[in-house]
Amino acid sequence: MSTDRYTTHASEPTWFKSSYSGTSGGDCVEVTVGRNVVYVRDSKVAGVGPTLRVGRVEWSAFAAYTAK
DUF397 domain: from which residue to which, for each copy (predicted)? Predict the structure, then answer.
């Protein structure tokens, strides 16, 4: 798996989208990492839709669980 990086302004975070998402649109999430938090958003409504905020420990547990 690789990631594509997206950012629109120097002060905005860099968002990562999985290469599994492809380039034809559809369902996809983007992720960016803050100091002690991970942010998740829907790429179809990036910038206007809601952003989920998750602690790094909780995100690591989620990622480990989904990798099984």
Answer: 14-64
